[in-house]
Specification:
The protein is mainly β. It has a single domain, classed as Nucleic acid-binding proteins (OB fold (Dihydrolipoamide Acetyltransferase, E2P)), CATH 2.40.50.140. Helices cover about 10% and strands about 60% of the residues.
């Protein structure tokens, strides 16, 4: 489970037979605090790559933009590939199973 802010506009693509896939960079932040001995622990931000499929991806495409706050539930997936230079790389992604939009929608004035 992650609650965080979208760091850049989502990347949307359509694959086999029109299946929608969205990729989102999500920032989660752990607040800073002070220990009893006076040591300050600074705020820390982690970036997560989130992959959403089909209906969830279509929601992302229609409603989600940079800066929006999301609640994501999913599974961690790790994959390995070889880059152009022959270097082995490992990527860890969250494959979303559910999504909740936490940013209130602004009512348009008519």
């Amino acid at each position: 489970m992650l609650i965080g802010n979208v760091g850049q506009e989502p990347e949307i693509k359509y694959v086999d037979r029109g299946v929608c896939v969205a990729s989102v960079r999500l920032a989660t932040t752990e607040r800073g605090y002070t220990l009893q001995n006076g040591t300050e622990v600074p705020e820390r931000t982690e970036w997560h790559s989130v992959v959403l499929w089909r209906g969830l991806a279509e929601v992302i495409e229609k409603y989600v933009h940079k800066g929006d706050k999301l609640f994501i539930e999913g599974q961690i997936h790790t994959r390995t590939y070889e880059d152009r230079n022959g270097i082995r790389r490992t990527v860890t992604e969250i494959w979303a199973e559910s999504l909740e939009l936490l940013t209130p929608k602004v009512k348009s004035e008519e």
